[in-house]
Design brief:
about 15% strand, single chain, binds iron/sulfur cluster, electron transfer activity, globular, alpha+beta
Length: about 650
């Protein structure tokens, strides 16, 4: 089959049974890979009452249609499972080189079922697939383990690892690869750890069949020539995403001191300029990328060993830097290294420590809760101690290891007013009080508050930050187009920053596979995936969906106290209007549940039947579903 490895793997960890099947061409055409495959497989295979960290959850690893091809940055791979953070569909992607390697070994997705009887790792060398003991590796840090396994197996193996956090079931544990690429969100590392799988090592040396190799390569060659001189190329190559710190502060959306405010005095100490000057060692790129936004760096702090890492990127600079009030770039980089090696997502990890710092500031937790330590803003030693308490689930750290929502409920008092999360997943690095589209994006996202689902900050800037009208339709468009790249498994930055069009990606897919995909069909597949994961979430968590889309109190009731966004706040009335518009534009009922009309229109009649059985099918919309869902708007680059 052109464009694909041709085989799928299903590994039962309890029995050791390893089964191979040919990849279904129909499935590939209808779901396109990675996130698309994950949404379909999870919906069909995981019992609705399965414990995310129990034996009935499954763990999927899937590259997409463009992974490993000559398409621009076809570098990504998706991981899927039911999330221990949200109890809904989870998918999280990473770049690097693992996805292409897996395809070159001949595999389009791997499903891990049940739980191994002992710590293990999955070994794949082309047709050789084994479950191997990993007792010697258990307890090691993610980065340390990757280096060790490269020594043990050979440099040519591409390796995904988890750290101690994944072993301990911390719900925001990540999977690490390539010494700094992470599938960070949704707690996919915790599910891998719950299956007692410490690592997945892959070597693939087969070729990938291509339908029209000359045209496929020519397309990318032309794009390379065109984008070499794009004005965004130089800053991205120099700074990666780190230059965005200043941009975000100026526009009043930089999370500061646990989202208490949105402008960080001292931001210039952790901005791109300072990062490049003090920490960056060299550039780094994923497979097939010529933008090399990755920055290999070193953190130097007197009294601590030098720490080498990739990053920090913008999200880390926001959620560990501003949000924990760190004014030294070496401290942020060290905290980034710590999170990477322990195996937690820097976004949810930073948000968790920041919540702890605010609770400490306001007397809701004390030294007695912190083993005699403090938890002061901007203090790297306090950050390290508390992070280790979380990862090792010591004392109050155990409550924080379950995410900020559960931690705040555990602490009580005003703590639930301090959290910024949706569906159990912490906000990415943007305060939304002046950005209604971004607030709506976070709250309606199927996996919880993650910017990769819809990054609408520039849409708010373009359409007016005070405006409510027309925002919901734009968010829907962004929710369809951005996740497309997760199914295609190529880097969305080439679209967002270098103006490569989705139509060019579709052409590349057709040259690779011989398909006759159109952009309209691709949008429709993305909308189908979105509706399926919505139905899945409601089937697992009950309804109505509107209850699950509610915004954090701080973002509705607490005006920004200072900075460029001083006095700004979306407010409850406006937020409810946004939700009303959003559901109407999606063809969902006012209570946020999908209707039979929209589900059948997208070929998901089975999901309508299932929602009906549990009394959660949305009531038909007067006048029927909208013919066009979403309003196209290509946000300006950063
Ligand atoms: S732009 Fe950055 S994230 Fe995207 S493929 Fe290149 S190095 Fe990876």
């Amino acid at each position: 089959m052109n464009g694909f490895g041709g085989t799928t793997l299903r590994i039962n960890l309890a029995t050791g049974d390893i089964r191979r099947e040919p990849t279904s061409e129909k499935m590939a055409r209808e779901w396109m890979g990675a996130r698309g495959f994950v949404s379909k497989i999870l919906y069909e295979e995981v019992p609705r009452d399965a414990d995310p960290l129990g034996p009935d959850n499954i763990f999927i690893m899937a590259p997409g249609v463009l992974t490993g091809s000559f398409a621009p940055a076809g570098s990504k791979i998706g991981f899927g499972c039911i999330s221990p953070a949200t109890n809904g569909h989870a998918d999280s992607s990473m770049g690097g080189h693992l996805g292409p390697e897996l395809k070159y070994a001949g595999y389009d997705y791997i499903i891990l079922e049940k739980i191994a009887s002992e710590p293990s790792y999955i070994y794949i060398d082309n047709d050789t697939v084994e479950i191997r003991p990993a007792g010697d590796y258990w307890g090691m840090g993610s980065l340390d383990l990757e280096a060790r396994m490269k020594t043990d197996l050979g440099e040519e193996f591409q390796i995904a690892t988890i750290g101690p956090a994944g072993e301990n079931g911390v719900v925001f544990s990540c999977i690490s690869h390539d010494f700094g690429r992470q599938a960070g969100r949704c707690g996919v590392g915790a599910v891998m750890g719950s299956k007692k799988i410490k690592a997945i090592a892959v070597r693939g040396t087969k070729s990938l069949p291509v339908y029209d190799i000359e045209k496929h390569t020519q397309l990318t060659y032309d794009i390379i020539q065109r984008t070499k001189t794009h004005p965004n190329m130089a800053p991205w190559q120099k700074y990666g995403t780190s230059f965005f710190v200043g941009w975000s502060n100026e526009r009043g959306c930089f999370p500061t001191k646990n989202f208490q405010t949105t402008y960080f005095n001292g931001w210039e100490h952790i901005d791109g300029e300072r990062f490049v000057k003090d920490c960056v060692v060299t550039d780094k790129a994923c497979f097939g990328c010529w933008m090399n936004c990755g920055k290999y760096a070193v953190a130097r702090i007197p009294g601590k060993p030098d720490a080498y890492l990739e990053g920090p990127e913008y999200e880390t600079l926001a959620l560990i830097g501003g949000n924990c009030a760190m004014t030294d770039i070496n401290h942020v980089a060290y905290a980034n290294y710590l999170c990477d090696n322990l195996g937690i997502d820097t976004m949810s990890g930073g948000a968790s420590v920041a919540l702890g710092m605010e609770c400490y500031q306001k007397g809701l937790i004390t030294k007695d809760d912190l083993e005699g330590h403090e938890l002061r803003w901007g203090n790297i030693d306090d950050f390290e101690h508390f992070t280790r308490m979380i990862v090792e689930k010591r004392g109050i750290g155990a409550a924080f290891s379950r995410g900020t929502k559960r931690a705040a409920d555990h602490i009580g008092g005003d703590a639930p007013k301090f959290i910024s999360q949706a569906k159990g997943m912490e906000f990415s690095g943007y305060d939304t009080r002046w950005y209604p589209s971004q607030l709506l994006s976070f709250c309606t996202a199927d996996i919880g508050a993650h910017h990769n689902r819809s990054w609408a900050i520039t849409a708010d800037l373009e359409l007016g930050r005070e405006t409510i009208e027309g925002k919901a339709a734009v968010v829907i468009y962004l929710q369809h187009i951005r996740p497309l790249f997760d199914s295609w498994s190529c880097c969305r930055l080439f679209w967002g920053e270098l103006d490569i069009t989705p139509e060019e990606h579709v052409e590349s897919i057709n040259c690779l596979t011989g398909w006759d995909l159109t952009i309209e069909e691709a949008y429709r597949i993305s909308e189908k995936i979105w509706n399926l994961t919505r139905a899945h979430y409601i089937e697992r968590n009950g309804g109505p969906g509107r209850d699950h889309d509610q915004a954090p109190i701080r973002h509705l009731e607490e005006p920004v106290p200072d900075g460029p966004a001083q006095g700004k706040m979306v407010g409850r009335e406006n937020f409810e209007r946004l939700l009303d518009d959003y559901y109407k534009n999606r063809g969902w009922a006012k209570n946020g549940n999908p209707t039979r009309e929209i589900l059948e229109d997208l070929g998901l009649g089975f999901a309508a039947d299932n929602l009906e059985k549990i009394g959660q099918l949305g009531a038909p919309i007067p006048g029927g579903i909208p013919a066009v869902r979403g309003q196209k708007l290509k946000p300006k680059a950063m």
